[in-house]
Amino acid sequence: MSDAFRCGFIAFVGRPNVGKSTLTNALIGSKISIVSRKAQTTRHRIHGVLTRDHEQFVFVDTPGFQTRHGGAMNRMMNRVVTQALAEVDVVVHVVEAGKWSSGDAQLLPLLPKGGQTILAINKVDALKDKNAMFAYVGKIMAQFPYAAVVPVSALRGVQLENLLTEIGSRLPEGEAMFEADTLTDRPMRFIAAELVREKIFRLVGDELPYGCTVVIEQWEETDKGARIAACVIVERESHRPILLGTGGAHMKRIASEARHDMAELLDKPVHLEVYIKVRKGWSDREGALRDLGYE
Ligand SMILES: Nc1nc2c(ncn2[C@@H]2O[C@H](COP(=O)(O)OP(=O)(O)OP(=O)(O)O)[C@@H](O)[C@H]2O)c(=O)[nH]1
């Protein structure tokens, strides 16, 4: 392989919950995309950038491929996945060690077959029967011509260097696209909205259906601090008390934890207000989704 600098886009695809976000974060070494036990927490494509001596990796973190529901939201999410695959240089198909389901198989027809698709078998730390791995890999390899297979543990940081080497060798030669210290090209506002959404999912995700989004409505930043107002949009009036909690306790906790993270991110004091708005049926109307910035 030549010593020329390489730079390119990498997409992680896989059914929900296989650990795509955790893996991206482990590779980039900073918490940018949000991680949660709940499926479907990453709705946007997020670029994280890792720059090394000989390569620049530009990661695109795609949402979980959806097959369970037929709503406009899921159709749009699947379109985002398809688009992401068409635009990138390397696709990493992430699966879970020992667990192959129809959700994994349904992705296969979308994967590029030109030698740029790598299989990453995540969560090897959780695999009880290590001997079963051989049969598991064989079964998957029989179904798709992967260019490489790398067992990893995003959580424990196992074999990540190996995965980076496999990805890096398949990136096109070319100059870096981002400054070396760029972690993400997403604006701060977007990340702030993601922080609020992350807290909501962690605290009331089990009770709240997936139709909830966060929009930053006010953003005033000076050298001394920032004033931010975030609006949480829910589908039904009945979702409001879930978010509020008894005496507003949930909302207070969500706002306080999000404010703390924002202050850390911006490295200055943050004043955060969080409102709730009800907008009926928004998650099933593509037009409404577009209004809110989901394309
Ligand atoms: N044991 C183990 N757990 C992991 C590993 N990587 C991720 N997880 C866990 O798996 C769960 C899902 O991880 P995410 O990174 O949110 O998964 P995702 O594929 O991005 O999920 P979506 O955003 O829903 O598509 C979390 O609870 C992680 O802590 C791993 O290597 N080992």
Structural summary, described in words:
Monomer. It comes from Paralcaligenes ureilyticus. With 295 residues, the protein is α/β, with parallel strands linked by helices. The protein has 2 domains: 6-168, P-loop containing nucleotide triphosphate hydrolases (Rossmann fold, 3-Layer(aba) Sandwich); 188-291, GMP Synthetase, Chain A, domain 3 (2-Layer Sandwich). Helices cover 32% and strands 22% of the residues. The chain contains 9 helices and 9 strands. The strands form 2 sheets. A 6-stranded mixed beta sheet has the order 2-3-1-4-5-6, sandwiched between helices. It has a 3-stranded mixed beta sheet with strand order 7-8-9. A hairpin with a 3-residue loop joins strand 2 and strand 3. Helix 6 (188-204) runs antiparallel to helix 8 (249-266). The radius of gyration is 20 Å and the shape is globular. The model is unreliable at 31-46 (pLDDT under 50). The structure holds guanosine-5'-triphosphate. Guanosine-5'-triphosphate binds at residues 14, 16-22, 35-37, 39-42, 63-64, 122-123, 125-126, 153-155.
Summarize this structure as a short list of keywords or feature phrases.
single chain; 295 residues; alpha/beta; Rossmann fold; GMP Synthetase, Chain A, domain 3; 2 domains; 6-stranded mixed sheet; 3-stranded mixed sheet; 9 strands; globular; binds guanosine-5'-triphosphate
Short summary of the structure?
The protein has helices spanning about 20-30, 70-85, 100-105, 130-140, 160-170, 190-205, 240-245, 250-265, 285-290, and strands at about 5-15, 45-50, 55-60, 90-95, 115-120, 150, 210-220, 225-235, 270-280. With about 300 residues, the protein is of the alpha/beta class. It folds into two domains: about 5-170, P-loop containing nucleotide triphosphate hydrolases (Rossmann fold, 3-Layer(aba) Sandwich); about 190-290, GMP Synthetase, Chain A, domain 3 (2-Layer Sandwich), CATH 3.30.300.20.
